[in-house]
Design a protein that fits this description.
The structure is a homoheptamer. Helix content of chain A is 10%, strand content 58%. By secondary structure, chain A is mainly beta. In chain A, a hairpin with a 2-residue loop joins β3 and β4. The model of chain A has no long low-confidence stretch (mean pLDDT 93). Chains E and F meet through α1 and β5 of E and β2, β3 and β4 of F.
C-alpha cells in the first residue's frame, strides 16, 4: 500500500499535473507541499484553462482546497 | 456490519470506480488511501468525463473531498 | 425520541434510499456506516440519476458529505 | 430568549417544515435530532420539490448540513 | 468597538432582517441564537424570496451556515 | 509585515468596502469584528448588488464566511 | 523542498498575483498574511475581473478561503 502523502513526497522535483475544480489545470515541477492542507509549490508551471495554455509562472502556491487530483 | 474503511482496505489492489463531483470518474487499481480524508492513490487509472475516456495516469492522488462514491 | 444514528443502525440489512446532492439517488441494502461522517456501505445498489437507473454496484462506499437524506 | 436547540426539542412529535438547499422541502413529524449536526429524523414525511409533492417516507434521516430552516 | 455577538444579543426581541444565500430573506423578531453557529430563532417571520413574500412562520429556526447578514 | 487582523483592527471607525460572494458589496463604517470568524459589524452601511445601491442599514452583522475581501 | 508558507513569507514586499474563485484576480504587493488561514494583505492592489481592471485599492485584506493560487 502506498499512502497519498508518501506518493506526493516521492514526486518532489518531478513534473506533475494538478487538476483543480472549474476546469483549471497546472503542470509544473513539484517543489514543496504542506500537511494536512496539501497546499503545493510548483516551479515552471503552466496554467491550462479548458485545454488552453493561459499563463506561465516561475513559482506558484496552489491551495489544496481546490485540488481534485495530482498526477505524478 | 461492514464499516466503510474496512471495505476500502479490503479493496486494495483491486480495480475500483471512483465517482467525483462534476461528472468525473476514475477507474483504477486502489494502491493506497489515508484516514480520515479518504484521499486515494490509484494505479493505471482512466479518467472519464461525462462517459468519455479523457486521459490515462500511471498513478494519481485523488483528494477525498470531491469523492461521491467508491465502488470496489 | 429516536436519534438519527439509532435509526441508521436499526436500518442495517434493510433496503434504504439515499438521496445525494445533484439529483443522484442510491437504493441498496445498508451494510455499514461510520461515525461521525455517516459514510455508508450499500450492497446490491442501484444508482439512479434524474429518475433513470444508471448502474448497479455489488458494493459501494457512499461519502456522507453529499448525502441529503437516508430513507429506511 | 429561546435557544434554537430548545425550540427544536420542544418541537418533538409535532409536524415541522424543513427547507433544504436546492428548492427541496420536507414536511413531517419530528421524531429525533442530534447535536451539534442537527441531523433530523422525520416520520410520515412528504418530500416537496419546487412545490410538487414528490414522495412519501415513513421515516427519513435528513442531514443537518443542507438545512436552511426548520419551522415548527 | 461593538462585537458582532454583542450586537446580536442587543437585537433580541427586535425585528431583524436576515439575508440568506440564494436570494432568500427573513424578517422577524429575534427570539434567540446560539454560539458559535449563529443559528437563530425568529418569531412572526416573513419569508421573502426574490422580493416576493412567500410564507409566514410563527417561529422558525434559521441555520447560521446560510446567513449572509443580519440587520437589526 | 502587516497581519490581516492588525489592519482590520486599524480600520475600526473607518469606512470600508466589503466584497461578498455573489456580486454583493457593503460599504460602511467598521464598528467591530470577531476572531477567528471575521464576522463584521458595519454602521451606516450601503448594500450594493451588481453595482446598484439596494438598501441602507443603520447597523449590519456580516458573516465572515462569505467575505472575499475587505478594503479599508 | 520549499514549503508553501516559506515561499509566501519570501514573497513579502514583492508584487504577487492572487487568483480567486469566480474569475477574480488581484495583483499587489504582499504586505502580510496569517497562518493557517492564508488571509493576505495586499498594497497598491488592482482587482481584475475576467481580465478587466475593475478597481484599485491602497490596501486590501483578501480572505484565504477563496484563493486558488498565489504567484510571486
Amino acid at each position: 500500500m502506498e499512502k497519498p502523502l508518501k506518493l506526493l513526497h516521492a514526486s518532489l522535483n518531478n513534473r506533475v499535473i494538478v487538476e483543480l475544480r472549474g476546469g483549471v489545470e497546472y503542470q509544473g515541477v513539484l517543489d514543496g507541499y504542506d500537511v494536512p492542507h496539501m497546499n503545493l509549490v510548483l516551479k515552471n508551471a503552466d496554467e491550462i484553462v479548458h485545454s488552453d495554455k493561459k499563463s506561465k509562472h516561475d513559482k506558484v502556491i496552489v491551495r489544496g482546497d481546490n485540488i481534485i487530483y495530482i498526477s505524478p
